[in-house]
């Protein structure tokens, strides 16, 4: 059976998306596990391949399922007219925001129609989206709308130890970060952290938390972990407040909302525990006690996992009928088009998408 077709969107062309895409697609480990088709501007992709010193030849295709895969070639699908080829590096530009949106939604529709088996997205700029009149918080919300999903969540996932090795030999994808290839993650089962709320202000989080939403997120985490190959997921649930509210002294969300949601999940047969103070729970999870963690808000989960595994962590959108992953870094405008971005995160994201696509194709690991 042929390897899955994965669409890889270029993201915001003013950022490092084209470079990390080029590095990943030139990597023999990637070409051995999937048939990549880049979604974006062919001229931009060609420049990115030249930047990273790749000799791959760009082959335009009229539709993603017509992917040409073989030595020395890389397919590129341009689903919509775009003037993003002239966007200068390192600056927010509405042309880049519009192109990133059109490439993303076209790839999502192709996946929904079964013409490809997954999408991997390079980072986009939220500000560029807004400059283009597209008022979305990010990829996750665009994909949820395109797929018609009301129950969804974003997860950062660190793959199982030994699942693949990432070592590009290139500088990190942030000018200030360092390599975390030797991640201190103790578990050999992988670790995923999903968020009940996502791209919203911290002040709005308590009002957005509901028993139903916490319970739904626990279920999404369990489903993903089983899909990726974890037979009996152990899920820890974060408290919202310090010290898990200290019996109501620092807030009552734990007793009023989160604990009842955990009880609901347990009643449904899910091995979920909590709410636990987030500072110690994330450490326990990194140490191997849990396979998944449900965080209440973006930075509660992101900071801990990115601290220990930035270059290995993969962003996965849960609850979609399609496979979608991405690297966990952003557009890194400060080093865009300088040849400094490394492809580690994109390589890990492609590996995860390919693994999910194969398991969905085989019908394994899903309740």
In short:
The chain is of the alpha/beta class and 367 residues long.
Describe this structure in words.
With 367 residues, the protein is an alpha/beta fold. It is built from 12 helices and 12 strands. It has helices spanning 17-25, 28-33, 42-51, 94-112, 126-131, 139-147, 205-208, 211-228, 253-267, 278-286, 298-309, 344-362; strands at 5-9, 35-39, 57-61, 73-77, 118-121, 153-158, 191-195, 235-238, 272-276, 292-295, 314-318, 324-327. It has a 12-stranded mixed sheet with strand order 3-4-2-1-5-12-11-6-7-10-8-9, with helices on both faces. The longest helix has 19 residues, at 94-112. The model is unreliable at 162-187 (pLDDT under 50).
Please specify the SSE layout and strand pairing.
Elements: E1 5-9, H1 17-25, H2 28-33, E2 35-39, H3 42-51, E3 57-61, E4 73-77, H4 94-112, E5 118-121, H5 126-131, H6 139-147, E6 153-158, E7 191-195, H7 205-208, H8 211-228, E8 235-238, H9 253-267, E9 272-276, H10 278-286, E10 292-295, H11 298-309, E11 314-318, E12 324-327, H12 344-362
Parallel strand pairs: 1-2, 1-5, 2-4, 3-4, 5-12, 7-10, 8-9, 8-10
Antiparallel strand pairs: 6-7, 6-11, 11-12
Helix pairs in contact: 1-3, 1-12, 4-6, 8-9, 10-11
């Amino acid at each position: 059976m042929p390897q899955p077709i994965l669409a890889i969107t270029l993201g915001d062309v003013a950022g490092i998306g084209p470079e990390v895409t080029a590095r990943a697609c030139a990597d023999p480990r990637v070409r051995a596990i999937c048939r990549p088709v880049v979604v974006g501007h062919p001229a931009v992709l060609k420049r990115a391949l030249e930047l990273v010193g790749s000799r791959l030849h760009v082959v335009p295709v009229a539709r993603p399922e017509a992917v040409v895969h073989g030595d020395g070639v890389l397919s590129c699908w341009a689903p919509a007219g775009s003037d993003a080829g002239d966007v200068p590096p390192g600056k927010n530009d509405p042309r880049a925001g519009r192109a990133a949106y059109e490439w993303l939604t076209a790839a999502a529709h192709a996946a929904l129609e079964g013409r490809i088996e997954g999408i991997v997205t390079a980072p986009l700029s939220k500000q560029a989206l807004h400059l283009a009149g597209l008022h979305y918080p990010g990829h996750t919300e665009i994909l949820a709308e395109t797929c018609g999903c009301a129950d969804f969540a974003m997860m950062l996932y660190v793959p199982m130890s030994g699942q693949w090795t990432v070592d590009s030999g290139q500088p990190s994808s942030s000018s200030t970060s360092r390599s975390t290839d030797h991640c201190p993650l103790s578990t050999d089962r992988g670790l995923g952290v999903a968020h009940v709320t996502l791209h919203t202000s911290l002040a709005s989080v308590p009002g957005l938390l509901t028993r139903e939403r916490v319970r739904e997120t626990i279920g999404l985490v369990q489903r993903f972990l089983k899909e990726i190959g974890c037979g009996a997921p152990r899920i820890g649930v974060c408290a919202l407040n310090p010290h898990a509210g200290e019996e109501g002294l620092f807030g009552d969300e734990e007793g009023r909302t989160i604990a009842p949601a955990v009880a609901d999940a347990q009643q449904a047969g899910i091995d979920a525990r909590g709410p636990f103070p987030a500072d110690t729970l994330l450490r326990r999870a990194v140490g191997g006690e849990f396979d998944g963690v449900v965080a209440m808000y973006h930075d509660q989960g992101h900071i801990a996992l990115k601290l220990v595994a930035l270059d290995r962590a993969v962003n996965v959108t849960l609850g979609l009928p399609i496979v979608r992953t991405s690297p966990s870094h952003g557009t890194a405008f400060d080093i865009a088009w300088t040849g400094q971005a490394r492809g580690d995160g994109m390589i890990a994201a492609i590996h995860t998408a390919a693994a999910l696509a194969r398991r969905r194709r085989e019908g394994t690991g899903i309740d």
